[in-house]
TrEMBL record:
InterPro entries, per the entry: Creatininase-like_sf, Creatininase/forma_Hydrolase
GO molecular function annotation: hydrolase activity, acting on carbon-nitrogen (but not peptide) bonds, in linear amides; metal ion binding
Listed GO biological process terms: riboflavin biosynthetic process
Lineage of origin: Bacteria, Bacillati, Bacillota, Clostridia, Eubacteriales
Source species: Butyricicoccus pullicaecorum 1.2
Protein name per the record: Creatinine amidohydrolase
Length: 313
């Protein structure tokens, strides 16, 4: 044991990797408990991305961005499950392998709950795919259990209002292809890129696109059944125009996204230092948020009203 501790101390500030699965357990545990307790879970999908981009694009983007954020911020990257949940309109597209909503929610929940046992107290879902249908409910279930979890898509976080891109983000388009060109250009075939389609069921002015800064009087694209089923609507599965993509645009997107996430993590750790669960409690019995006070209320970390002592300073 003393040998193990010695090795751990030696490794503490020089992990083998920002990737959880590439370090040993003692290094990950000591690092989470003593250096940085922010864990990033990259979430993408296995999905057709037109004739020019790989099926793993969303997961690759999430993993590559998470790696850069972790290098800059000191956070740890949990293994990406690769498959993801999907909005209704993706269903039936060949080469898209979708998890159903319950599966994806359970997957996200179980990964976060399991990783908390390492010592992580702050979780960031870095999502690169429109699976709001399952990651949002997962975050709320986790919240009721005492897991501080932030769900974010890189494109919402960016909020690019045509500063870098000429169009808002859609699918296998200028935005996604530019990011792929920046991060793993060898898997992108720009000679095969074609201008895509996509039929909206309400006028575009009523609908906030992914990656668009919000305006008054707009629904979010993923808050309604605003699009035709892609299998009925599209020949190539491309929505938007990837011929406008470039590595330079991708580099600019990556830089802004990495900078934003890293600043958020720094701020989070200043407000809630290593070892502090921002929610102040953890319910080890699992989800039971609606049964009227089943959370621990009288332990040493809470006052008589069940409020975390942490907040009463
Ligand atoms: Zn995608």
């Amino acid at each position: 044991m003393s040998e193990l501790k010695k090795q751990t101390e030696f490794k503490l500030y020089k992990r083998d990797s920002v990737f959880f699965d590439q370090n040993t357990a003692p290094v990950n545990i000591d690092y989470a408990r003593e250096v940085n307790d922010v864990a990033i879970l990259p979430l993408g999908a296995i999905e057709q991305h037109g004739p020019h981009c790989p099926n793993g694009l969303d997961s690759f983007n999430a993993i590559c961005l998470a790696k850069k954020v972790a290098e800059k911020s000191g956070a740890t990257v949990l293994p990406c499950p690769m498959y993801g949940g999907h909005p209704y309109m993706h269903m039936g597209m060949p080469a898209t392998i979708a998890l159903n909503y319950e599966t994806n929610m359970a997957l996200i929940h179980d990964i976060i709950a399991g990783a908390s046992n390492v010592g992580y107290n702050k979780f960031i879902l870095l999502v690169a795919h429109g699976q709001d249908s399952s990651f949002i409910p997962a975050v709320h279930k986790l919240g009721m259990e005492g897991y501080f979890t932030v769900a974010s898509t890189w494109y919402d976080f960016l909020g690019d209002n045509k500063d870098v891109l000429s169009d808002y983000m859609w699918h296998a388009d200028e935005a996604e292809t530019s990011m792929a060109l920046s991060l793993y250009g060898d898997l992108v075939h720009m000679d095969l890129a074609i201008d895509g389609g996509g039929t909206t069921l309400v006028d575009g002015k009523w609908k906030k696109a992914p990656g668009e800064m919000s305006h008054p009087f707009q629904f979010y694209h993923f808050d309604g059944t605003f699009a035709l089923m892609e299998k009925d609507d599209l020949d190539y599965g491309v929505i938007g125009n990837p011929t406008k993509a470039s590595k330079e645009k991708g580099d600019a997107l990556v830089e802004k996204v990495v900078e934003g996430y890293s600043a958020f993590i720094k701020d989070l750790l200043e407000k809630h230092p290593v070892g502090v669960n921002p929610l102040g409690f953890r319910n080890p019995l699992g989800f039971n948020g609606f049964n009227g006070g089943a959370y621990p209320t009288f332990d040493k970390d809470h006052d008589a009203k069940g409020r975390p002592l942490y907040y009463n300073k």
